[in-house]
Each structure stands twice: as C-alpha cells, then as structure tokens.
Amino acid sequence: MQGFKGKNTLENTEIIKSLIQLCDVESQVDIELRRVALKILRRTIENENKDMTTPAAEWDSEDWEKYEYQVVERQEMMAEMDFAKLICRIISNDEDIGIKEEAILAAIALLIGGNHNSQMKFCTYMMEDTENLFVLKLKQNIDLCFDLIRRIERKKNSLN
Fold this sequence. Notes:
The protein has helices spanning 12-23, 31-46, 61-64, 68-80, 83-93, 97-111, 116-128, 133-159. The chain is an all-alpha fold.
C-alpha cells in the first residue's frame, strides 16, 4: 500500500495480523464485527480465484485450478500468521453459531487443495489441545447439524 507517499503506511501482513487479533476469542470486540473480520480473512484466500465469488466450500477442482498457485501462496501466508490456530480457538471456545460457521468456511479456504502446511498447523493445534476441546466441539457442531437435518426430513416426510 502506498498511501501517504511512503510515510505511515501499513503492510498487508500488519492488517491481517490485526484482524486475526480482533477475531480472537479473548477479543472484547462485538461478535458480529469479529464474524465480519473473520470473513475478510477468509476472503483474502478466496479472492485469489478471480473466476469465483462463492466461498471455497462451494468450489469444484476445475473452479480454481487456474489460480492454484495464487491460492496456495495466500494459504501459505495465512498459515504462517497462525490463521489455523485462530480458527481452532473459535471453534473450541466460541458459543456463537454464526462465527463458528464462518470459522468452518475459513478452515475450508485454508485447507482446499490439501495444503500440507495448513494441515500441519491444524494438526499441531490438535496435538497441543490436551483436553481435545477442538475435536469435541467440532463433533458437537456436526451432531447439531445432523439433528437439524433429521428434524427437517421428518417434518418434510410428515407433510407428504
């Protein structure tokens, strides 16, 4: 960024680090602002794919293979800034379903294509999580989703 003619400028990495701090579970910032900041962080990866405007969770392989190099480069940058740790902390500790959903989308963006460095960052967090809080909370969220699907299906079936 070259605003202010080289004086008092912010680097992209400084902005991203600030957003990561703002999103953390210990932040005193309003939950909705934290969710939006997390979405901005997710979009820094997804915006490398110039052909798609949807979340990476909705991409097929051919939707982003043309931009694979750029996506992987951005994933690497985000992984080195502990984006995976932030995602894990949100899933483990936040009660708000909206920010947890955004964290899941962010995890998909960080992991799409099987990024090894990102996988290792998640693995490291899980290995250090002696109480297995991350995995337990992830399982709880999956169970809640399946329960919701079952209720919707039952309701649909009862209407037929």
